[in-house]
Amino acid sequence: MVELLFEDIFVLMRLDPDGKKFDKVSRIEARSEQFDMFMQLDINTEIYPMHVGDKFTMVLAPTLNLDGTPDSGYFVQGNRKSLADKFEYVMHGKLYKISEDSSSGKNAKVEIYASFGGLLMMLKGDPSNAANFELDQRIFLLIRKV
Amino acid sequence: MAPVEEKLRCTKEPYIEDVGSRKIKSIRFTTLSSEEIRKSAEVQVWNNRIYGNDLQPVENGLLDRRMGSANKKIQCATCHGKFTECPGHFGYLKLTLPVFNVGYFSSILDILKCICKTCSRILLPEEDRREFLRKMRNPKADALQKNALLKKIRDKCKMFRCPRCGSSNGVVKKARTGLAIAQHFTKSVDESAEEIRSALSHKKDKQSFQAAHVITPGAAFALFKRMLDEDCEVLNLYDRPEKLIVTEIAVPPATIRPSGFVGFGRTSNEDSITSILKNIINTNSILREDLEGGAPASKCIDCWTHLQIQVVEYINSDSPSVPESKHRGLIQRLKGKQGRFRGNLSGKRVEYTGRTVISPDPNLKITEVAIPVLMALVLTYPERVSYYNIEKLRQCILNGPDKYPGANFVQKPDGSTMHLKYVNKKIVANDLKYGDIVERHLEDGDIVLFNRQPSLHRMSIMCHRARIMPWRTLRFNESVCNPYNADFDGDEMNLHVPQTEEARTEALMLMGVQNNLCTPKNGEILVASTQDFLTSSFLITRKDTFYDRATFSLMCSFMGDAMDSIDLPTPALIKPVELWTGKQLFSVLVRPNACTRVFLNLIVKEKIYTDNETMCPCDGYVYFRNSELISGQLGKVTLGNGNKDGLFSVLLRDYNSHAAASCMNRVAKLSARWIGNHGFSIGIDDVQPGEYLNQQKKKKIDEGYRECHEHISSYSKGQLTCEPGYNAAQTLELKITSVLNQIRTTAGNVCMNTLHWRNSPLIMSQCGSKGSAINISQMVACVGQQSVGGRRAPNGFIDRTLPHFPINSKTPAAKGFVANSFYTGLTATEFFFHTMGGREGLVDTAVKTAETGYMSRRLIKSLEDLSVHYDQTVRNASSGIVQFLYGDDGMDPAKMEGKDGIPLNLSQLFMKVMATCPHRVLDTLSPSEILQIMDDRLSKHDMSPEGGCSAAFKKLLTDFVNSRVVLMRNTRRALKLDEDHTEQKDISLTERIAANISGISSKQLQVFLDNCISRYHFKKVETGAAIGAIGAQSIGEPGTQMTLKTFHFAGVASMNVTLGVPRIREIINAAKNIKTPIITAKLLSDRDALSASIVKGSIEKTVLGEVAKAIQIVIKSHRPYISVKLDMGLIKALHMRISADSVQLSILNHPKIKLKPEHIRILRSDKLRIYAPEADKSQLQFSLHSLKAMLPKVIVKGIPTAERVVIDKTKQGIYKLFIEGTNLLAVMGTPGIDARNTKINHVIEVHETLGVEAARQSIIDEIHDTMRNHGMSIDKRHMMLLADVMTYKGEVLGITRFGIAKMKTSVLMLASFEKTAEHLFNASYSGREDKIDGVSECIIMGIPMRLGTGILKVKQRLEQIPDFKYVPGPVLNRSNI
């Protein structure tokens, strides 16, 4: 079985907080319900439109293989069954930075950064949620609206 | 040379010693005596006819066959050589009477001044003479010291009466007219002169007493002949002085003065020298006839003078004594740019070259150049036939000279050559043997040198590999435009083909494009992507470029001609559709497949970067991690030139030049093809302003105009408050200019914000490929203020710029503000102002090129022979040490990675190590462990000063590691962990996170430190490097880019400083008077405004007129006086401490006002009375008035040279003083000034007050500041070297002809620089010996210089030379079996 790195339901708070800069890509700001995580994510809205108030499940997984075999790093074509079948929007990328954010008072938060071919994700929350992550990890981001 | 001559047959061959090859070691300059001239000559020349009736040269004529051949038809009668073979032989021409040699004229004059005109002995008392002789003979004295001594001797030889024979000597002077020497007895103390004078005074018409006596060349010759050898030595004469006077002329060989017949006619066209000599022969024979025939003396003398003038013309036709010569004398042949020295000896014409128009080709590699087939047919390379190439060369020979790839010549080992056009090619091809040399056409992969003028730095000539291509232009990759400064608007470039294997290897290793990616000016990358490459990279890496599988694969194939294997990455978007992003394409570009072991790590902030690091909303934060583009849109900062931590720089430093070059090749190919498919152009809609922009612009302009009008009206009412140091009109200008500049800036900003992202000019300015925000806003919004000479448009008409405006109008429009954009079009007046600004720019460029060119030439001449030696010292050609360690650390400027010439960019390197060498969670170190490991590593040998590590680098490294430790502690504190300790066993969650965030493993630290240290040692400057020439180029080349804008603000608004080329010139020339001397003074109590103004008051030059309320003449009955009343209020306010007493003192000390203390009466502390000193009543009125005119100019306080003092307040509230003027010593001595932190920008003044070391530092700082003001960075090592060269003689020498003459000893070098003839004549006067060891001398002599690869000599034992056979080794030999 796949061991998921992170799973939560987010609510989209804001679309393009700094103004619309790109035609096809929008930056969303979302907050999760369960772990109270804050997320910024670039999404190709041309093929997967999103709106303020949307509620969606987001999963971060190290592999798409249902049996949990690790991702080889090479892309294999074919319509095998995979974790992606249950989701509507899947991206693949790399975790490139973990940093602490001590600006918000006593409880230091941890920020996790990932880049999906230039589409960036920033996940901020309690350090406990960051334990599974490692630098330079290849991760899949899967989204399904609920 | 003489095959005709029958060899003398002997029964026994005479023994001829084999002298082997000889090398010129030194040259001595001397004078020739008439005997020597006669001996070396083949023929006496006396016949004034050149050609006889049979059109053959006349015997004893100027073109006598024995002097060599003057044209192709004549064969030499001495050596029987043809025109091309015979080097020529001298003849001689005997003059009837001796004449002066112009070149030595001043020396002759000086000698005559020093000797007695009766007994030829030196005019010195015996003991003085001995003393001087002893000093002159001092073997340690060099030429410069001897010259100084000679000057001293000349000054001493002022005796009127000879100490030996007692006869009187007059003053020797050059006669007023012509070239003659006269002896005046007028001043000499002689009774007879007195007698004559008294006798003359009785005569009615006051005839002045003239007792001048002309010393004829003949008389001088006789005097010189009688001179003692010892006296000659005292006068620093190397040889007999009579040689300075011409009695015989050496007629130069006919080969150097060719003669030809015009058409079929009988008139010949003669060289200048021949014609002058012909005239001399004529005059000479007339003179002889006159003398022999007993013609009247006056006629003879006239003839003699005429002869003198013609001999002068022969030597120097530009001499003032020659009236308008049409000919070119000997000196004219030597001097000047086209002269022998600069035109033929220092620079020579070469074969195997080509030149044509250039054009771009992005499909070529950066190391390649495409050569047209037509050119390749002519350019050849002599290839030696061997087993490996014989078939290829046979084919070449068969193809012949007209078919590519062919060959032009075949050389056999016996030295014979065959032109393939005239022989049977088949036979030659069949006869080809190993060891023959075939001059084959250029082929792909051959090594050529490629160059574009002006060659301002060493990257202007680089080595490429040839690619033979059709059509007619030379082509190369656009990435290499930068070093050549080439564009394709019709530029032409040159190509040279090295002809030996040694030359090829050396060219490839030292001058190859790959090995010259970085400029030694400051280590920035020079060969990098430009223009369209940047634009397309920018567009490709946009966040919203997505490609499906087909497009992505196609584009991957673009970058390598579909020849490379490429690993397709996992698509960034997997669902709902597979899509790859443009950034992934760039990741592929950097690392196409897993076999390419390139792990690029870099962080660059692009122009569009705002904040939030990688999360920057504009995507301007470029982050590569292990060759994967994480974020950021690539632009000029990453890919372009002039950057130290861009993509190519990092590839070059972390990997090698090949990695960087192949990446550049891929970028070029991908970009060119991508943009060809994508399309990129500018249309009218790109420059159309939107509705919103129009409104905003109108609003801003209206606001600005209103503000300007307010200023103008307040100015005309006289209510404008002046800025410090300015008058009302200047203040108004200042205010209006700032308002108008504001308008353009805001209009530009609005314009940039409203344009659509697809706007082409916007894209270009954002990625940095072309144009700036100002250019766009000029097209779209508003052109803005036009300036001429840094000011608004000047008044070309009376009190107005153009007749379209009212007189004295100062409105924006009347003074050159252009409110329209280029899109809307300019009005007539606006257009006129715009052209005024444009013309200034054009004039500037034209002036600047000539000026900087000369500056570069001087710099090169003074620094050319400096190089690094094996002991790391920097020495000049005569092995004089200039620096003990180059640049204080012995680092190569071209290899510096950090800013300001720091060897390494540690943070980048650290990031790379962290990314490429990942740590496991378990093995992170605690801060104390880190410091421990670092200390251990730093105590090793290669980090010690003996191991070649500078203290600065050690400190840099320690500081960096410490800063990482601080970061680590911060993280741990934030995560509430023990700051100084990591638990190894218990791996808690937070511990893991902390490790992920800022943990360093021992492996990582080890790798990082080792990497840093080994790289540091790799960056040492190579022995033999011609750092002098490189330094000169690095300072000279930026000069060409500097706009000639002279004035610029320095800190304070009201202070102007000379900048740009004029300032650099001032510093380099070591000018005594500079345009804007400024002293920057720190204060002892620098936070106190009051003390600042007190110090200011005591420094600033204050004249009486400024502090006096009134200076008036009071006429009273008994004694009129001038009453001076001081303005005590003002004096108090300015803290000047002036009282009536101090004023009295300063008036008394004034040099022009000659008053005595009793003339000045102090009435009160602020009132004085000054009485005129004249007793004469009639003069009283005048003297009072002249006093009154002078009094206001009396300096009552301050330093006379301190014209103006301005107090500057920095943001931190620290007060400083800027003093316009000189006299650093007085300023430093002023109470309240912090003397140790007081500076002046005047190098000579620094030298005079603080000494030569301070002057050196001052030169470095001043050049650095000037360059920085123009946004140019130059490695400080170059400036150090320049400053050292200027100061290493113990005084500050300018890089001018005077300074260089003091720095260098070589006559040839000085002669090839400036004042050619002067240096040569002086050298032969004192018999200078010139060692051939400098760069210029070696080039002139054609000897390899002892610099660079020439610094070492290889000696080899020649007992047994191994036999090379041009046959392949056996296919099977023992080792294979």
Automatic annotation (TrEMBL), chain A:
<dbReference type="GO" id="GO:0005736">
    <property type="term" value="C:RNA polymerase I complex"/>
</dbReference>
<dbReference type="InterPro" id="IPR012340">
    <property type="entry name" value="NA-bd_OB-fold"/>
</dbReference>
<dbReference type="GO" id="GO:0000419">
    <property type="term" value="C:RNA polymerase V complex"/>
</dbReference>
<dbReference type="GO" id="GO:0005666">
    <property type="term" value="C:RNA polymerase III complex"/>
</dbReference>
<dbReference type="GO" id="GO:0006351">
    <property type="term" value="P:DNA-templated transcription"/>
</dbReference>
<keyword id="KW-0539">Nucleus</keyword>
<dbReference type="GO" id="GO:0003899">
    <property type="term" value="F:DNA-directed RNA polymerase activity"/>
</dbReference>
<protein>
    <recommendedName>
        <fullName>DNA-directed RNA polymerases II, IV and V subunit 8B-like</fullName>
    </recommendedName>
</protein>
<dbReference type="InterPro" id="IPR005570">
    <property type="entry name" value="RPABC3"/>
</dbReference>
<dbReference type="GO" id="GO:0005665">
    <property type="term" value="C:RNA polymerase II, core complex"/>
</dbReference>
<dbReference type="Pfam" id="PF03870">
    <property type="entry name" value="RNA_pol_Rpb8"/>
</dbReference>
<comment type="similarity">
    <text>Belongs to the eukaryotic RPB8 RNA polymerase subunit family.</text>
</comment>
Automatic annotation (TrEMBL), chain B:
<dbReference type="GO" id="GO:0005634">
    <property type="term" value="C:nucleus"/>
</dbReference>
<dbReference type="GO" id="GO:0003899">
    <property type="term" value="F:DNA-directed RNA polymerase activity"/>
</dbReference>
<comment type="similarity">
    <text>Belongs to the RNA polymerase beta' chain family.</text>
</comment>
<feature type="domain" description="RNA polymerase N-terminal">
    <location>
        <begin position="242"/>
        <end position="541"/>
    </location>
</feature>
<dbReference type="InterPro" id="IPR044893">
    <property type="entry name" value="RNA_pol_Rpb1_clamp_domain"/>
</dbReference>
<dbReference type="InterPro" id="IPR006592">
    <property type="entry name" value="RNA_pol_N"/>
</dbReference>
<dbReference type="InterPro" id="IPR000722">
    <property type="entry name" value="RNA_pol_asu"/>
</dbReference>
<comment type="function">
    <text>DNA-dependent RNA polymerase catalyzes the transcription of DNA into RNA using the four ribonucleoside triphosphates as substrates.</text>
</comment>
<dbReference type="InterPro" id="IPR042102">
    <property type="entry name" value="RNA_pol_Rpb1_3_sf"/>
</dbReference>
<dbReference type="InterPro" id="IPR038120">
    <property type="entry name" value="Rpb1_funnel_sf"/>
</dbReference>
<dbReference type="Pfam" id="PF00623">
    <property type="entry name" value="RNA_pol_Rpb1_2"/>
</dbReference>
<keyword id="KW-0862">Zinc</keyword>
<protein>
    <recommendedName>
        <fullName>DNA-directed RNA polymerase subunit</fullName>
        <ecNumber>2.7.7.6</ecNumber>
    </recommendedName>
</protein>
<keyword id="KW-0460">Magnesium</keyword>
<dbReference type="InterPro" id="IPR007066">
    <property type="entry name" value="RNA_pol_Rpb1_3"/>
</dbReference>
<dbReference type="GO" id="GO:0000428">
    <property type="term" value="C:DNA-directed RNA polymerase complex"/>
</dbReference>
<dbReference type="GO" id="GO:0046872">
    <property type="term" value="F:metal ion binding"/>
</dbReference>
<dbReference type="InterPro" id="IPR035697">
    <property type="entry name" value="RNAP_III_RPC1_N"/>
</dbReference>
<dbReference type="InterPro" id="IPR007081">
    <property type="entry name" value="RNA_pol_Rpb1_5"/>
</dbReference>
<keyword id="KW-0808">Transferase</keyword>
<keyword id="KW-0479">Metal-binding</keyword>
<dbReference type="Pfam" id="PF04998">
    <property type="entry name" value="RNA_pol_Rpb1_5"/>
</dbReference>
